[in-house]
Amino acid sequence: MKCLWRVVGWLALLVLPARAGNLPAMVVVTEDARPLHYLWQGQLQGEAPQFIRQLMQQAGVAYSQQVYPWARAYMMASSLPNVLIYSIARTPEREPQFHWIGKLLTV
Question: pTM for the full model?
Answer without folding.
Answer: 0.76
